[in-house]
Each structure stands twice: as structure tokens, then as C-alpha cells.
Write a structure and sequence with these properties.
single chain, about 130 residues, mainly beta, six-stranded antiparallel sheet, 2 helices, 8 strands, about 65% strand
Length: about 130
């Protein structure tokens, strides 16, 4: 699991499009926790599959779907998302891409958890 967090994306090159899978974890919740009672090792995982829908000369329009799971102290959170973006290269730098993304999703909150939580002081331990 930590391997996927460190390798945040896997590019897959197709005929002329670019597809990527990214797995992200909120570093602050993983290492420190927060001020609302969530301790260290709180999972907040975002998985996103993105592909280029349209390729322009120096820009592209990507589409993506994703899911986010977070096991917060007050409740669990699961979010499904669908989004679109605009990514472009500026003439002064070919190594960096600049993008604007907009997504819409369904958000669910509840008291049940995918993980079993054991709390030792301020540290939460999660098991399957």
C-alpha cells in the first residue's frame, strides 16, 4: 500500500493518448493527524484514472473518474467523482504542465468502517 502512495502515478501510453492511474494519501493525516481527533495513520486514499479525451497543439482536455475513501474519527467518507480538465504548456517551460480541473461527485458518510480501528492513546491502528 505504501508503495502505491510513493509511486503516485503510472503512465500508460496508447496510440496517441496518455492514460494515468494515480493513488494519493493525505500526508498530514498519515504522519501527524489533525486537530479534530484524527490520529496518526488515518487513511485518506484517493484513486484516479485519467485519460486524454482531446489532444490540441500545446494543450489537452483530460477526463477522469475517481474514488476517495477516508476513515475519519467522526465518520467514514466515500466519494465517487467524474471530472474534466484543461492542461496546457506555456512557451517559457516545456517541462511543466499547467492545468485547471473541475469535478462533480457523490459523497457518502456513515459510521461503519472498512477497517477495524484500535486506539492506543492518540495513535490509531487499523486492521482489516
Amino acid at each position: 500500500m505504501l508503495f502505491f502512495c510513493l509511486c503516485s502515478f503510472i503512465p500508460i501510453f496508447g496510440q496517441e493518448s496518455n492514460t494515468s492511474i494515480s493513488v494519493n494519501q493525505d500526508i498530514r493525516l498519515l504522519l501527524v493527524g489533525d486537530d479534530t481527533g484524527n490520529g496518526k495513520f488515518t487513511p485518506d486514499i484517493l484513486i484516479r484514472l485519467e485519460f486524454e479525451a482531446f489532444k490540441l497543439q500545446k494543450s489537452s482536455i483530460p477526463l477522469y473518474i475517481g474514488i476517495e475513501y477516508s476513515d475519519l474519527n467522526s465518520s467514514t467518507l466515500i466519494r465517487f467523482m467524474l471530472g474534466v480538465g484543461f492542461v496546457t504548456k506555456f512557451s517559457f517551460s516545456d517541462k511543466f504542465l499547467f492545468g485547471l480541473y473541475l469535478d462533480h461527485g457523490l459523497l457518502g458518510r456513515g459510521k461503519s468502517s472498512f477497517f477495524k480501528r484500535k486506539q492506543y492513546g492518540r495513535i490509531n491502528i487499523y486492521e482489516f
